[in-house]
Amino acid sequence: MTLHFVEQSPVSHFLFSDTKSAALWLLVRLYLGWGWFTAGIDKMQDSAWFGYNAGAKLTGFLQGALSKTSGAHPDVQMWYASFLNNLVMPNVMWWSNAVAVGEVLVGLGLMVGCIVGVTAFFGALMNLNFLLAGTVSINPEFLILGIFLILARRVAGYYGVDYFISPYLRKLRKS
């Protein structure tokens, strides 16, 4: 039996495998990273997100999300509302701090180009959760850019820390 592989299109090869596209991904990384970083810094400087009153704003956000669970086509699905009620609300202070720190770390990781695929994955995961909670804002744009960075992970960090650590990560993967 002969296996036939689908050949990669020239556009796909350029975007996701060719280091000539690294400058494009650097711009995307800087834009997305700055967005995450500033959002996280704003939260870390707000005591209702991070500090002595942590969780106050997240509680309001969650209450807003939970109010969107009714009607024929709810913005927030019941399975996600159950997750918010049973896991997030009882630990709101921890989650509030995790969101603030996570946003800063994703932003820094993207801006310096450190393990871009993994960093973009965690940013996309946060965007997905914000969308599942019924908040649109800039989340669809960030989610799409994050997915593209995940796909371009081999070249997206070429102008960044990944250029230096990739050889070591490949050696670890082989051993």
Structural notes for this entry:
The protein has about 180 residues and is an all-alpha fold. The chain has one domain. Helix content is about 70%, strand content about 0%. The chain has helices at about 10-15, 20-45, 55-65, 80-90, 90-110, 115-130, 140-150, 155, 160-175. Helix 2 (about 20-45) runs antiparallel to helix 5 (about 90-110). The longest helix has 23 residues, at about 20-45.
Outline:
With 175 residues, this protein is an all-alpha fold. The protein is built from nine helices and no strands.
Give me the secondary-structure topology:
Blueprint: H1 10-17, H2 22-44, H3 56-66, H4 78-88, H5 92-112, H6 116-132, H7 139-151, H8 153-156, H9 161-174
Helix pairs in contact: 2-5, 2-7, 3-5, 5-6, 6-7
Helix content: 55-70%
Pick out the low-confidence regions.
none
How does the major sheet shape up? none
What is the β-strand count?
0
Q: What value does the Rg take, in angstroms?
A: 19 Å
- What structural class do the secondary elements suggest? mainly alpha
The 3D shape can be described as globular
What number of domains?
1
Terminal residue distance? 32 Å
Order of helices and strands: HHHHHHHHH
What is the beta-strand fraction? Answer: under 5%
The number of helical runs is: 9
Give the integer mean of the pLDDT values. 94
